[in-house]
């Protein structure tokens, strides 16, 4: 019996195994950045930035004069059609296996074509849902061509490192293709906002109250990425600054950016600002009462503070009264800013990017009841109470900085 089974299985293994569909690395062209722009006749201009695997590797000696990447643009009905068209020009087979970044122009983000193009393109198994979405003020092809970072030779490394920095600073949201598709109907979706264009720079004491293009920068990389693009029903309807984006993320139950640095006015000397590290170790407490009309939303956000610098040299270390004053001032500043952002979303954007709808949905037995309730409309009239629960953890390693005496 065993001998007969072996006679059957061995020929099957020989027939089913093989390497008929294998491709060597040098036969493939890896797209690391994809760009989308509007075109005529409901077509899309698709830009492919293709990485050169030899540049930046130990094999660079075989290609000393080759560029780190090649960028080409094709006009087609969607991404998959443009990919097939590109395969007739590029000598190697295009692959999305290493694609991490999708750049969409603001014009494209405001068109009805975007949701359809992204929805149908996700049928390609290589187009992963973890791709980060960046909305650029200018055309995406211009954004990709102008982005030439000096410290990173390989383009995919630049975006990989920047995505980690975005999580550290919380100036931009965590925006992936999967999250976009989840919130394409009804809920607000926040996408990363970037540009290579410079607007009239206006210096501000508040270092995170900028959007991309407004940061007062001299020299360095041309790309600025800060703030978020607000998308509703697949269409871009506005933008948020870096500060507003931070608070939108803090108001969510779970925070991906668990700590970041920010400055606040010194309550004892308004000519100075105190730099703090804000740490969110626990989830926010969100309670929604849908039985009231309008509904009531209570949000409590636990934050641990670390004092990093006190330029005014006011004694906040040993003076408990000063500590209490500082804590109250930071609490009021955070609560007032969060309330302004909630009011802006209620009035201007007619929706909420705080993912509170998940908490509201728990109050209903069925999805039909929740949909009939129309949470997005109810949110615009909701009474929102925001409370920050602050705790000062430390004042740094140097408890009492050296005071510099001014000579008369």
UniProtKB/TrEMBL annotation:
Subcellular location as annotated: Membrane
Q: Where is the Spore germination protein N-terminal domain?
A: 21-187
Please provide the record's keywords in A-Z order: Germination, Lipoprotein, Membrane, Palmitate, Signal
Q: Which residues form the Spore germination GerAC-like C-terminal domain?
A: 226-396
Q: Topologically, how does it sit relative to the membrane?
A: Lipid-anchor
Q: Does the keyword RNA-binding apply?
A: no
Matches recorded under InterPro entries: GerAC_N, Spore_GerAC-like, Spore_GerAC-like_C, Spore_GerAC_C_sf
What is the similarity comment for this entry? Answer: Belongs to the GerABKC lipoprotein family.
Q: What is the protein name given in its UniProt record? A: Ger(X)C family spore germination protein
Please name the source species: Paenibacillus chondroitinus
């Amino acid at each position: 019996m065993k001998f007969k089974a072996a006679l059957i299985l061995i020929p099957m293994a020989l027939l089913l195994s093989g390497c008929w569909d294998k491709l060597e690395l040098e036969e493939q062209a890896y797209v690391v950045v994809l760009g989308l722009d509007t075109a005529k006749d409901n077509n899309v201009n698709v830009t492919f930035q293709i990485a050169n695997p030899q540049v930046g590797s130990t094999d660079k000696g075989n290609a000393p004069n080759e560029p780190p990447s090649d960028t080409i643009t094709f006009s087609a009905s969607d991404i998959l059609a443009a990919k097939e068209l590109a395969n007739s020009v590029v000598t190697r087979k295009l692959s999305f296996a290493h694609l991490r970044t999708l750049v969409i122009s603001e014009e494209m983000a405001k068109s009805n074509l975007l949701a359809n193009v992204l929805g149908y393109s996700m049928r390609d198994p290589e187009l992963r849902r973890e791709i980060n979405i960046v909305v650029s003020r200018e055309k995406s092809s211009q954004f990709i061509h102008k982005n030439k970072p000096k410290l990173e030779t390989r383009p995919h490394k630049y975006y990989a490192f920047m995505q980690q920095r975005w999580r550290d600073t919380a100036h931009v949201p965590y925006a992936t293709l999967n999250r976009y598709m989840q919130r394409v109907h009804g809920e607000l979706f926040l996408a990363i906002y970037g540009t290579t264009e410079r607007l009239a720079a206006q210096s501000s004491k508040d270092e995170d109250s900028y959007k991309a293009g407004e940061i007062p920068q001299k020299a360095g990389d041309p790309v600025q990425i800060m703030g978020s693009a607000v998308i509703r029903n697949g269409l871009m309807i506005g933008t948020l600054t870096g500060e507003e984006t931070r608070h939108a993320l803090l108001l969510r139950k779970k925070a991906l950016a668990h700590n970041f640095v920010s400055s606040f006015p010194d309550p004892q000397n308004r000519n100075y600002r105190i730099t703090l590290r804000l740490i969110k170790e626990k989830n926010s407490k969100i309670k929604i009462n849908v039985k009231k009309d309008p509904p009531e939303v209570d949000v409590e956000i636990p934050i641990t503070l670390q004092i990093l610098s006190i330029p005014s040299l006011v004694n906040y270390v040993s003076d408990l009264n000063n500590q209490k004053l500082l804590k109250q001032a930071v609490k009021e500043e955070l609560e007032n800013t969060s309330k302004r952002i909630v009011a802006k979303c209620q009035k201007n954007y007619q929706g909420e990017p705080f993912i509170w709808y998940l908490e509201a949905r728990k109050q209903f037995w069925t999805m039909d009841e929740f949909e009939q309730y129309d949470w997005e409309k109810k949110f615009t009239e909701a009474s929102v109470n925001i409370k920050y629960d602050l705790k000062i953890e430390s004042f740094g390693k140097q408890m009492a900085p050296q005071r510099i005496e001014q000579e008369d």
